[in-house]
Amino acid sequence: xxxxxxxxxxxxxxxxxxxxxxxxxxxxxxxxxxxxxxxxxxxxxxxxxxxxxxxxxxxxxxxxxxxxxxxxxxxxxxxxxxxxxxxxxxxxxxxxxxxxxxxxxxxxxxxxxxxxxxxxxxxxxxxxxxxxxxxxxxxxxxxxxxxxxxxxxxxxxxxxxxxxxxxxxxxxxxxxxxxxxxxxxxxxxxxxxxxxxxxxxxxxxxxxxxxxxxxxxxxxxxxxxxxxxxxxxxxxxxxxxxxxxxxxxxxxxxxxxxxxxxxxxxxxxxxxxxxx
Length: 276
Hints:
Elements: E1 2-4, E2 10-12, H1 15-24, H2 29-40, H3 49-63, H4 65-71, H5 73-78, H6 85-96, E3 101-109, E4 114-123, E5 126-133, H7 145-157, E6 171-178, H8 184-193, E7 196-198, H9 208-215, H10 228-236, H11 249-254, H12 259-272
Parallel strand pairs: 5-6, 6-7
Antiparallel strand pairs: 1-2, 3-4, 4-5
Helix pairs in contact: 1-2, 2-3, 3-4, 4-12, 7-8
């Protein structure tokens, strides 16, 4: 059975790949098998991967909101846009979970010009800049021009003192983070130039997908019991992670949720983050 990818390419339907992604959501084998059988009965030649995803998500949501939320992770990260401002906040939380102190959206003076830096992180008295390349569509990758451009910004900043965490901080290294992937040339150039890369699936033992699951860093946009407008209101209030509402029920009251809906949202967030 031929299916159509987001990019427009045509590939064979991979049932095992879909099964693996459903199992990673936390659904048990019997539920996954019933979903796969339902999808087998509905797919057709030329169906899009987007349509298959929507079918799987809807079926999974009928059995568990939290499993559907986990299955929805990559799409949820794309909802931290459209400009990527909330993605930068999310990445700040990501590094905080790794023991870093962080600051976001800084204007720093380089040797030649000023630069807007997305995130600066600090650990063991070393400061690193983090540049975030957010893409609202999953098929868009960061090519070699991205590390080339960011390397020039890093070089303009690295030899100067900056008032960030102390009065005289130097930036010792640079990360580039994307919610999608880097091209092979981008990875080769970054490695050769000493830049650190972080993407959806790179590096294999420290990628966004893996660390989010390990540390329960699920964005608020994962939750299926909130509307898009409600998620936007929470992010404006600096609620970025699902776990940030578990002990902060007041913020759900602040955006106008009823007691019953508050109970449903906190239940889903707790199950998603394994807090029950």
